[in-house]
Amino acid sequence: MTTKPRNRIVVFRLSQEEYGSLLDACTRAGARNVSDFTRSEVLQCLDAEEGSSPLARRFALLEQRIAVMQIQLNDLFQGVFHEEVKQQQPTRG
Length: 93
Fold this sequence. Notes:
Elements: H1 16-29, H2 34-47, H3 54-88
């Protein structure tokens, strides 16, 4: 976070769909508000190291999402497995 005053304003227009996508991304990132999120994303792009292109960032994001899905699938399969084992156990009566 900077201690310098933020006295410059940048304005750009978005379509309704683009704005909706921006709000969704802001929510997913847990950002405080749209301005903070947008500023940090733009500055991150500017400060990105060589070789860390927007495409590389998108691939990294995809890899993260795939990892989350793998965990979710694993949890789902374990739940199904435990349910099958539970159903195979003889009932006490």
